[in-house]
Structures are given as structure tokens and as C-alpha cells.
Design brief:
eight-stranded parallel beta barrel, 38% helix, 211 residues, TIM Barrel
């Protein structure tokens, strides 16, 4: 994983498929400029989740962008995903690193400097920090202030991406925070034209980060 891979990090959600398959939605996001894909599922059984993971992984490999699975460490290992992303209530980051090995990508969600430092020490490769704006995609997401986001970026040496309620209209508010990219769900996948939404959001994010 390169730092620039984290610029436009797309997290899947089948809630807005509107007749598309998830693979079709992901393909459109990649064509629009998504630089990283996280497969997030909460309600599929193992075999369905595995089949979906293999489909999405194939698209990401063709596009040469990282592919990680949310939460399900065993599945990530089974399908040989590029890595896994875990939250504070999932498996502890050090245990995850032990299961996925030293070369796989480990992303960890953090909302405080303490959580961020602990995740970095446990072997995290990047942090997802949020929710930086109110969000309807994750009902359990607590807000993280701009001050805390900047403090986390200052405290760790690994890349930080912001997540939560980010849109093409408010991404500029994250300027000078220290992040290297953004993670979004509805800002891409809830749009009728996923490809165009991803392209526009990538442009706005590059402007916000002075890239």
C-alpha cells in the first residue's frame, strides 16, 4: 500500500444498489477514480460473503488498487485479500496483525489520540478517523472534532483518512487537518451516477489536500 492509495477510499454498502450488483457498483466507483476498496457486509452468510469478496477482489486486482475486508479477519485470510479493517469493538489490532501476517494491510478505526497511538503500536498501517461530519451510514458512529482529527494526525506517523458524512461540498473543511485521503460510502454508492460521483469527489479531495 502506498499513501496515495488512500486518497479516495470507497466503503461498500448494498443499501443503494438500485438494481445493480455490488460488483457493478464497485466497478463504476473504480472507473470514476476510487483508489482503495473496503468490502463491508453485516448480513451475508459466509459463503455469500466469500463469493462476493472474490468478485470484488478480482476487480481491484485488475485495477491494481488495494482491497480489504471490514471486520471479518478469517475471511480476509481465506480469500487472500490485501488486508482487513477493524473497529474498536472488533478483534484487537495486535491479534489481527498476528493472524494476517506482517505484509497484509491493517486498517484500524480510531476516535481519540489514545486509540490512534495504541493502533499504531499494534501494527496498523493506516487509521480511519471519524465520524468527522454527521452520518446516516453508521448509526453507532460518534463525532470526532476537527481539533481531535488534527491531533491524531500529529500524534501518529502512519497515514490517516477521515470518514463519516463527507461529501463533495464539505470535503474542503478538512483542509490542513493532516489527512491523506477520505473514506466514503453514500457520497459514492448512493448516487445515480457512481462513476461521475467518484470522479467529482476525487477532484474536490485533491483540491482540499492541495494535491
Amino acid at each position: 500500500m502506498k499513501t496515495e492509495d488512500l486518497l479516495l477510499y470507497a466503503v461498500t454498502d448494498r443499501h443503494w444498489l438500485n438494481g445493480r450488483t455490488l460488483a457493478q457498483a464497485v466497478q463504476e466507483a473504480i472507473e470514476g477514480g476510487a483508489t482503495f476498496i473496503q468490502l463491508r457486509e453485516k448480513n451475508l452468510d459466509h459463503e455469500a460473503f466469500k463469493a462476493e469478496a472474490l468478485d470484488i477482489q478480482k476487480l481491484c486486482r485488475q485495477a491494481k488498487i488495494p482491497f480489504v475486508i471490514n471486520d471479518d479477519v478469517d475471511l480476509a485470510v481465506e480469500v487472500k485479500a490485501d488486508g482487513v479493517h477493524v473497529g474498536q469493538h472488533d478483534m484487537e489490532a495486535g491479534q489481527v496483525r498476528g493472524k494476517i501476517g506482517p505484509d497484509a494491510i491493517l486498517g484500524v478505526s480510531a476516535q481519540t489520540v489514545e486509540e490512534a497511538l495504541k493502533a499504531e503500536a499494534a501494527g496498523a498501517d493506516y487509521l480511519g478517523v471519524g465520524a468527522v461530519f454527521p452520518t446516516g451510514s453508521k448509526e453507532d458512529a460518534d463525532d470526532v472534532s476537527a481539533k481531535t482529527l488534527a491531533a491524531i494526525c500529529d500524534a501518529v506517523s502512519i497515514p490517516v483518512i477521515a470518514i463519516g458524512g463527507i461529501t463533495r461540498d464539505n470535503v474542503t473543511e478538512l483542509k490542513d487537518s493532516g489527512i491523506v485521503g477520505i473514506a466514503v460510502i453514500s457520497a459514492i454508492f448512493a448516487k445515480d451516477d457512481i462513476r461521475a460521483a467518484a470522479a467529482d469527489l476525487k477532484t474536490q479531495t485533491r483540491k482540499a489536500l492541495n494535491l
